[in-house]
Structures are given as structure tokens and as C-alpha cells.
Design a protein that fits this description.
By secondary structure, the chain is of the alpha+beta class. The chain contains four helices and eight strands; from the N terminus they run βαβββαβαβββα. An eight-stranded mixed sheet has the order 2-3-4-1-5-8-7-6. A hairpin with a 5-residue loop joins strand 7 (121-127) and strand 8 (133-139).
Length: 150
């Protein structure tokens, strides 16, 4: 099986500061490195896991410039961001990009891909049957190795 572990969960919010206070001040996560995405946010880590990619990703909505977020993760109505509707996506670390592409094609599922160069990750986004976005993170070398996209 290509899934190696749960990578992170992402929460989309209109209040980064309230989320930061809850996850950092109340739960004890620590703010850490986050790539320079074109939308606001935080990556939160537990102590000692800085080699990973954070456990909780807080995704902020920039009402003055929402396009960066829309381009990267898609659009969601603010009215839907309550309760579990605020869980933006669930991410897994994985291997076997070519095989996953084939399985997605065989299942008739649409996906979108992008590489985060400063992290060495190639991401595949697909929706599960309930409409939850699943992010699969493969080593970027698998995409760079010329594996065919099917």
C-alpha cells in the first residue's frame, strides 16, 4: 500500500489568530516553518517533529485577495466553514505515484497535481466519496523521474 502515514489535517478559517490561540496556547502546538504560499496560514508542530511538515495546517482566508487560496486549494463558501465543514483536507504521505495515478484513472476520479519545490513534495489532490479533499504527498523525485501521467 502506498500510504505510509497521516501527514496533517488542515483547517480553513476566517480567524487565523483565534485558531492560533487555540492550537498553540490551549493545545500546546508550536508554530513552525511554512512555505511561502500565496495565502495566509500557519503550520503547527508538536515538539520534536520539525523534520515533518506539521500536524495541523491553519489555512487563512484573505478577503482582500482570495485568489491565491482559490488557485491552490479551491474555493469554499465561508458559510460552510463551521464544525467539520472547516476541515479543509486530510493529507497522507505516500509512495508509488505512477501506481496511484493508474488507480485514480481506473476509478474514474479527477485529480489535480502540483509540486512544492522547497519541500520536495509532489501533491495529488482527490475527493473522497463524501467530498472530503484528500492530499497525497509523494517524493517530488517520483514526479521528476518522468513517471508517465496516466
Amino acid at each position: 500500500m502506498p500510504i505510509t502515514k497521516l501527514a496533517h489535517l488542515s483547517v480553513r478559517t476566517t480567524s487565523i489568530e483565534a485558531s492560533r490561540q487555540f492550537y498553540v496556547d490551549v493545545l500546546g502546538f508550536k508554530e513552525g516553518y511554512r512555505p511561502a504560499f500565496k495565502f495566509p496560514g500557519l503550520w503547527l508542530y508538536r515538539g520534536g517533529d520539525e523534520a515533518d511538515y506539521g500536524i495541523v495546517h491553519i489555512i487563512g482566508i484573505d478577503k482582500d485577495d482570495p485568489q491565491g487560496l482559490k488557485d491552490h486549494l479551491g474555493d469554499k463558501a465561508e458559510s460552510s466553514l463551521n464544525g467539520s465543514g472547516a476541515v479543509d483536507h486530510i493529507a497522507f504521505l505516500a509512495t508509488g505515484l505512477a501506481g496511484m495515478r493508474l488507480r485514480l484513472k481506473q476509478a474514474g476520479l479527477q485529480s489535480r497535481e502540483r509540486t512544492v519545490p522547497d519541500l520536495g513534495l509532489h501533491q495529488v489532490f482527490v475527493e473522497d466519496p463524501s467530498g472530503i479533499t484528500i492530499e497525497l504527498n509523494f517524493p517530488a523525485t517520483e514526479a521528476a523521474d518522468g513517471e508517465p501521467r496516466v
